[in-house]
Each structure stands twice: as C-alpha cells, then as structure tokens.
Design a protein that fits this description.
alpha/beta; binds S-adenosylmethionine; 8 helices
Length: 276
C-alpha cells in the first residue's frame, strides 16, 4: 500500500523537528575529516514545491511557515532556516528540501548517500533531482529496511542512518524496531535517527520503548507536541537517536523549548527529552 505522498505534509511541524535534527547531526558528523555514509531508508521525493496548486492541504502552515521570518531562533533553527534560504533565494518560501536534498547539500565530495524510496512517483522525482548527476548518490526503488541490511557495515565505518517511514501499515512500527536491533548487530557504532508520529494509536505509543530496547547503551529521545491530543490526528512527533553526539541533548533543550512555544497551536504544546 503506497497511498502516502510526502508532498502533502512537506514542511509541517514533524518535518521541522526531523530536519532541524538532521542538519545538526550531519553538521556534527561531517566536522570530522573521515568520510561518512548517509543512508536514508525512506527518502521521499527529495524536494517539494510548497505552492503546488494540486496539493490541497498546506501543512507547512503548521511548521516552516511559522518560522520563515524569525530572527531570534536558537542556532539549530537558524541553521535550518539558512538551508531553506539557499533554496529560496527570492526570499519567498516556495521550495522545501526533503532529507536527501539536505544531506546532498551538506555532505562532502568523499561522502556517499544511499537513498531508497518505494513510491514510483517519488522515486522518479528522486532520480530526476539526483539521477546520474551526482556521483556520490545512489537511489533505489526498494524496501529501505531490507536495503539497510545489505549496506551495513559501511565501508568507511562511519554512517548516519535516517529512518523516516510513513507508518502507513501497522507492520512499519514492528519493522523499524527490529531493523534498529539488526542494524546495531551489524554496525554498533553507527548513528541512527528514527522519526515516529505521536498519535492516539497503541503501536505508535509503544514504539519508543521498543526502540529503547533495540538501541543499546546510548540513546536520546526527543518529543515535540503542538496541540491537544483530543483533537485527533498528528498532534506531535518524536525522534529517537541511537549513539547521539554528546552535544545533542543540550542543543535540543534550547531548540525544543523554543519550537514548542513557536509552533504551539494551543496550550497543550510541550516537549520532552530523555536520554540513557
Ligand atoms: N525522509 C523524507 C524527508 O524527510 O524528506 C520523507 C519520507 S516520507 C515520511 C516516507 C516515505 O517512505 C514516503 O515517500 C513513502 O513512499 C516511502 N516508503 C514507504 N514504504 C517504504 C519502504 N518500505 N521502503 C522505502 N520507502 C518507503
């Protein structure tokens, strides 16, 4: 079942959380000279047009559009806004980067990017954006978690694995936790970032504990809630990081307390950070 298309959700509050964190992780890991692999198991289309007339729901209004003109943000958010500004040189927010675009812009000539995307249209967009133009990048239309098994351990022994499923099917929740456990057996020192939705759904609520069990000794878990759960739908999301940089908890504290205020839709907005 592949009815999910990220174009309908691009730039929403969940994208803000995951992309702010992704930029921080890539910045930290690429500060060391040794080369790095970036593995994006659920890559999406690569870039998104926020003004597309056929996209009826503009979820960017819950996220990036609330931040676009701010100047008083914490450094993690300012870094994110700088990435966006490079894609929108006119000053009008029209183009939004997906995780592959962010990684391709931040990584260096010796780094490699492995992007899997199952949806035919989104995979075609990925190919059109990155296709054969960038020799660092390989895209495949295949199951991202199965490909992850084949890719680990990475040749340079350094990798960031970004796991951002659509959770369209219940088995995604189980499969993600099992994939993290398997991946750690193959490559225990990798950095793994797993995004998940905060929903009134048992499988979603149980995922953080399953990830904790799969994560090994070092992990960080960040949650951002933007509105009252009683209203239903996606009221927040979480990011679970295995082997986080030691600086991440401190940067997240400042960033999430600011984002929880800025993206709040009502008085139920909140954030939480836990770590091992
Ligand atoms: N990571 C992207 C970003 O941050 O821009 C967004 C990804 S979106 C939340 C999830 C994507 O996973 C969708 O494009 C969907 O088509 C794709 N997908 C669903 N099942 C998949 C699978 N088994 N393997 C790879 N991709 C899959």
């Amino acid at each position: 079942m592949l009815s999910y298309q990220h174009a309908f959700h691009a730039g929403n509050h969940a994208d803000v959380l995951k992309h702010v964190a992704l930029i921080e992780l890539l910045g930290y890991l690429s500060a060391k000279p040794k080369c790095l692999w970036y593995i994006d198991t659920h890559a999406g289309a690569g870039t998104y047009e926020l003004g597309r007339s056929d996209v009826a729901i503009r979820e960017a209004q819950t996220g990036v559009e609330r931040l676009w003109n701010v100047t008083d943000a914490p450094p993690m958010v300012l870094n994110y806004l700088q990435q966006l500004a490079r894609m929108n040189p006119s000053g009008k927010l029209e183009h939004y980067p997906g995780s592959p675009r962010i990684a391709a812009d931040m990584l260096r000539s010796g780094d490699r990017l492995w992007l899997s995307e199952l949806h035919p249209a989104d995979h075609a967009s990925l190919l059109a954006t990155f296709g054969h133009r960038d020799r660092r990048i390989r895209t495949e239309r295949r199951d991202g978690l199965a490909w992850l098994k084949a890719l680990l351990p990475p040749a340079p022994k350094r990798a960031l694995v970004f796991i951002d499923p659509s959770y369209e099917v219940m088995s995604d929740y189980r499969n993600v936790a099992a994939a993290v456990s398997d991946a750690r057996r193959r490559f225990s020192t990798g950095v793994y970032a797993i995004w998940y939705p905060i929903l009134a759904l048992r499988a979603a609520q149980q995922l953080p504990r399953a990830l904790e069990a799969a994560a090994g000794p070092k992990w960080l878990h960040a949650r951002l809630v933007v509105r009252d759960p009683a209203q239903g739908g996606l009221h927040g999301s979480g990011l679970f990081v295995v082997n986080p940089p030691y600086t991440l908890a401190g940067s997240f504290e400042e960033t999430l307390s600011w984002l929880a205020r800025r993206l709040a839709q009502d008085s139920h907005a909140s954030y939480a950070i836990e770590s091992s």
